[in-house]
Automatic annotation (TrEMBL):
Its EC number is 3.4.21.53. Gene3D superfamilies: LON domain-like. Residues 17-212 form the Lon N-terminal domain. PROSITE patterns: LON_N. It comes from Variibacter gotjawalensis. One of its GO terms (molecular function) is serine-type endopeptidase activity. One of its GO terms (biological process) is proteolysis. The lineage of its organism: Bacteria, Pseudomonadati, Pseudomonadota, Alphaproteobacteria, Hyphomicrobiales. SUPFAM superfamilies: PUA domain-like. Keywords: Hydrolase, Protease. This is Lon protease 2. It holds the Pfam family LON_substr_bdg.
């Protein structure tokens, strides 16, 4: 999705961003994530983000291996920042919005703040390649991605928009499938932290093949 703002590199983004911890939520560069915001602290976060020209929210997963403090969970060190590109008021106190991913970040420090939501000092420098659309597409084994998607859809008895899939560039295809994948926190974090698009596609294929193998072994969702 095109944005009014243009981010060419790490220097174009602020060093301090609000973060939204959400398990299982994977945002990737140029991906679109719908959000339904209803908690007061996150409504305040959206209100404050809208007053800033960047309109940024950092999506990050709680690290559930480090305890289970629901109010203040330990965070993974890597997330992805997105810009609010669509927003609607529901009429019952909620915001329905869409984030468009810009770049991944690494948390350098969580700040002590007076806001009800959390804020972190971050760096985008390790992920400078995220600012280059379609970077590394030529390295993706598209056939392997499509083959495992076909097997997954068949096993789960699901349908797909094959015209859209066949016409999607490699980056859009891999990132959309990764974001929509029904996998757990650890798998989503691995997909997020993949070195490049080629590696992300390989991880996606490997995770899906393992899931299909487990289903096949159990006899629940045979491929044949």
């Amino acid at each position: 999705m095109p944005m009014n703002a243009v981010y060419r590199g790490p220097a174009d983004l602020p060093q301090v961003i609000p973060v939204f911890p959400l398990a299982g939520a994977l945002l990737l560069p140029r991906g679109q994530m719908p959000l339904n915001i209803f908690e007061p602290r996150y409504l305040a976060m959206i209100d404050d983000a809208l007053t800033d020209r960047h309109r940024l929210i950092g999506m990050i997963q709680p690290d559930q291996t480090q305890g289970h403090d629901n109010d203040h969970p330990t965070l993974f060190r890597v997330g992805c920042v997105g810009r609010i590109t669509q927003l609607a008021e529901s009429g019952d106190g909620r915001y329905v919005l869409q984030l468009t991913g810009i770049a991944r970040f690494r948390v350098e420090e969580e700040l002590s703040v007076s806001t009800p939501y959390r804020q972190c000092r971050v760096t985008f420098s390790p992920y400078a390649i995220d600012f280059k659309a379609r970077h590394g597409e030529e390295g993706v084994d598209r056939k392997a991605v499509v083959d495992v998607l076909t097997a997954f859809l068949k096993a789960k008895k699901l349908k797909a928009d094959w015209d859209g899939i066949n016409n999607a560039p490699n980056e859009a295809l891999v990132n959309a499938l990764a974001m929509m994948s029904p996998y757990g926190v650890a798998e989503k974090q691995a997909l997020l932290e993949a070195l490049d698009l080629k590696t992300r596609a390989e991880i996606l294929v490997a995770i899906t093949e393992m899931e299909l193998a487990k289903s096949d072994d159990s006899g629940e969702t045979p491929l044949q």
